[in-house]
Design brief:
With 189 residues, the protein is α+β, with helices and mostly antiparallel strands. The protein has two domains: 97 residues, Aminopeptidase (3-Layer(aba) Sandwich); 84 residues, no CATH class. 25% of the residues lie in helices and 36% in strands. It is built from five helices and eight strands, in the order E-H-E-E-E-H-E-H-E-H-E-H-E. It has an eight-stranded mixed β-sheet. Strand 2 and strand 3 form a beta hairpin.
Length: 189
């Protein structure tokens, strides 16, 4: 069955959410769950549909001449079949039509995802760390991350840190990801 790339519709929300959760489940974004879809103020919301089912999603937002991929995901049953690439190619054209000269995305250190971006000509830059201090993983982690206040106990903390602190962060916390910006000039003819 052919893949159709089209604009997201409000009726797609539940399928969009399910596709996002399932596509993120095996990645470093496994816990980036949202109960409702957020729409970019300016940008595009695309879905890949096959046989009436949403099998892929891509949202990007615009800031001046920069298009940032906010969400991209392909349902696990449809991965490695070119769905993400088709979404991306459509998004590049749409971004260029909206005035973008660069498209970028931030992602974490999942090797398959990094290979996907690199294979599409993205260049890495602007690294920083995503640091998770989670009481349920190690009860001491949140206390190391913040100064507790009387009666207020950190349970789970998500932090950003400079890349120069990577070795120190990896020694202190069990879950540390390098967040990477990928960017690519848009030259659509």
């Amino acid at each position: 069955m052919p893949i159709e790339i089209r604009d997201y519709r409000p009726a797609d929300e539940q399928a969009w959410l399910r596709c996002r959760v399932l596509s993120f489940l095996g990645t470093a974004y496994f816990d980036d769950v949202t109960p409702a879809k957020q729409s970019p103020a300016i940008g595009a919301e695309l879905v890949a549909v096959q046989g009436g089912a949403v099998v892929g999603i891509l949202d990007f937002s615009m800031d001046g001449n920069l298009a940032t991929i906010d969400t991209i995901g392909v349902h696990p049953d449809h991965q490695h079949q070119g769905v993400g690439t088709k979404l991306f190619e459509f998004a590049r054209i749409r971004a260029a039509a909206l005035g973008a000269t660069t498209i970028d995305a931030y992602t974490r250190d999942d090797e398959a995802t990094l290979r996907w971006y690199r294979a599409r000509g993205f260049a890495e830059s602007n690294h920083y760390l995503h640091v998770y201090a989670n009481y349920y993983v190690n009860a001491d982690e949140p206390g190391k991350a913040v100064e507790p206040r009387l009666g207020l106990f950190p349970i789970k903390i998500f932090l950003h840190a400079d890349l120069v602190q990577e070795a120190e962060m990896r020694q202190e916390f069990q879950r540390v990801h390098v967040c990477r910006r990928f960017a690519q000039p848009i030259d659509v003819q």
